[in-house]
Amino acid sequence: MQHSKSYNRDKSPLYENEIPYQMVSSIAQKYLGNYYEDKFFEYGLIIIKPEALIMGKVDEIFSIFCTRGYELVYFTRKKIDAMCTAEMWKFSWQNATLENILINQKLLSMYDSIILILRLHNPGSKSVCEMLTDLKGSAVESKRKPYQIRYQIKPINYMLNYVHSSDNVNDFIRELGILLNFDEIIQTFNAIISNRIISYPCIEIFHFPKQNYTLDKWMNNICNQLKTVDICISDQKYILSQIQLFKKFNTDFKISFNFLSVLCQYNLIKWNFNNIVFLSNNINYTE
Fold first, then answer.
1. How far apart are CA 42 and CA 69, in angstroms?
2. Long-range contacts: 22-25, Cβ < 8 Å, 24+?
3. Which of 40, 44, 49, 211 could form a disulfide with 129 if both were Cys (CB 3.0 to 4.6 A apart)?
4. 104: part of which helix (H) or strand (E)?
5. In whole angstroms, what separates CA 93 from the centre of its chain?
6. CA distance 198 to 177
């Protein structure tokens, strides 16, 4: 059965020269024939992001998928390295700040995500990718609707929003090739052609110590650490000038990529989940 092409061929020119897209398209044609895109109409890709695992939200998200009739075909749990992260979101991050990109890369490369391949039989006029994207909801709080995941399970902030979905079939193809290695792609297609359905996995609850940072406490901690590090005068003056700007403007102060870079140069930031939450609350997301 051929569906209406609502899976958006407009993105094909963007992707057709990319190796991940070419590889998955070639494998798909071998397994599913020339009309593999129509077969993919019933499938979608979801990333359960690290903050959902750490905050114990995974079972709630799985419950929403189950209630809506989405069947689990394949999943894997892994860290997503910095290069894959940059490749995944390079089109949507064209106006993103470097600090936004850096913090995302740190989060996804340090902590596990769960990648799900879901199926829904006879989805109707919209592809499963489109339906899952609608079910996910917007990263912008004011745009969310009561039935959506990000409305029912309120994200930490704009960045730490628990789930990612492939927007359409072309994104599904491309993201399979970026997120999965060759063996995992083959396992996914074997699951698809065998109509295999598996149970949603049980995920252990993290017990992560919370630290309630304020910008004031965080800056004071930087000042204290400055007394113990070997740092050049110009960089020390730059860090202190940023702290003075914070004290002057306080709530209007945002942490910049340049500031983060200098702090990292002297190991003045410990990259852990608490710091990632704090930093993501105190940056500009777009230029």
1. 12
2. 22/177, 23/177, 23/182, 23/185, 24/173, 24/174, 24/176, 24/177, 24/185, 25/173
3. 44
4. helix 98-110
5. 12
6. 22
pLDDT digits (tens, 9 = 90+) for 49-84: 999 999 999 999 999 999 999 999 999 999 999 999
Q: Which residues pair with 286 in a beta bridge?
A: 96
Q: What tokens does 50 get?
A: 């690290």
- Could you tell me which of 143, 147, 3 has the C-alpha nearest to residue 67? 147
DSSP class of 64: H
Helix intervals (H) in 111-232:
128-136, 149-152, 169-179, 182-193, 215-226
Neighbouring C-beta atoms of residue 212, cutoff 10 Å: 7
Cβ of 10: how many Cβ atoms within 10 Å?
Answer: 10
pTM above 0.85, yes or no: yes
Within 13 Å, how many C-alpha atoms sit on residue 238's CB side? 15
Question: What's the CA angle centered on 137, arms 134 and 138, to 5 degrees?
Answer: 120
H helical segments located in 10-97: 12-15, 19-32, 36-39, 50-54, 58-67, 82-88
CA distances from 4 to 123, 155, 242 (A): 12, 34, 54
Alpha-carbon separation of residue 112 from 47, 271, 273 (angstroms): 10, 15, 12
The distance from CA 165 to its chain's CA centroid, rounded to whole angstroms, is: 9
Can you say whether residue 285 is alpha, beta or left, with left for phi > 0 and alpha for psi between -120 and 50 degrees? Answer: alpha
Express each pLDDT in 41-51 by its tens digit: 999 999 999 99
Contacts of 209 (CB under 8 A, 6+ apart): 274
Residue 125, number of CB atoms within 10 A of its CB: 9
